[in-house]
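Posting for a labmate who doesn't have an account.
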Amino acid sequence: MIKLTRAVLIAALLLGTAAEAAETATVFAAASLKNALDNAGAAFTAQTGIAIKASYAASSALARQIESGAPADLFASADLEWMDYLAQKKLIRPETRVSLLSNRLVVVAPKDATETEIAFTAEGFARILGADGRLATGEVNSVPVGKYAKTAFEKLGLWGTIQTRLAQADNVRAALALVSRGEAPLGVVYASDAKSDPGVKVVGVFPQDSHPPVVYPFAVTAEARGEGAARFLDFLKGAAAKPFFEAQGFSVIPAGK
């Protein structure tokens, strides 16, 4: 009888371990987070056995997918507005929401471009863009990087000059690729994106007061399954994940700020 009980206990433990190993947390995250979250996710899986399945796109597209019922367990946005959008629709668990990261808005050029620094003037941009060159960034009415870019150009008095020269992409990494491939002489992306692609170089950093702070809020979704997403978010908030973010050019926002 004792042997049977011990066998049952061992079997239960093995089943529990297998269940945890089979658990998957699905993360919908802003495209600019890809490198950092891929690395952090791999470390988390190695530690816990919980797999991380990530889908990267513009925060706007991901928020609308969640609204339409897409099975996301954790949402990470590149701006506050799209997290607010889901919060208003009660599609996140508000007690889990945290502003975790910040970033800088920069101007990039192809790595072999002769320019090393751009003047934030109409003449400065016109000189580099030339007669028919385009400035790549995200769609300015919905994609966070495009929204930040539009606000910054408006604040700097350059929107009238830049507006007709834009190549608007579905997400920041698509805009980055246009510059990296030499299809656009300039682009507005985040500092972390510039760091991720050796095909580009930073030629300008927007003044911090020209646009709202670039803040990345994270939250577990209202329909999250299991505990994997909450555990992954706890990991991302901890010291073990900080190097993954800082290595990609993000700044970690201190807890409570």
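Reply:
Got it, the structure tokens are right above this. The first strand starts at residue 24 and ends at 30.
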